[in-house]
Please model this.
Amino acid sequence: MGENHFAALPTALYGRVLLAAAIAYRVLQRTIIAAQGSDSQLQAAIV
Model:
């Protein structure tokens, strides 16, 4: 991005969209683990 001089607003918006997707994925992980219990395969995979 440094040499290409992207517009600041679209770049910032893209970063916010990526952050929102990461937060949503984390919430999804926590929800699945809570539903499946502490012996969840997902829990084992991320620990």
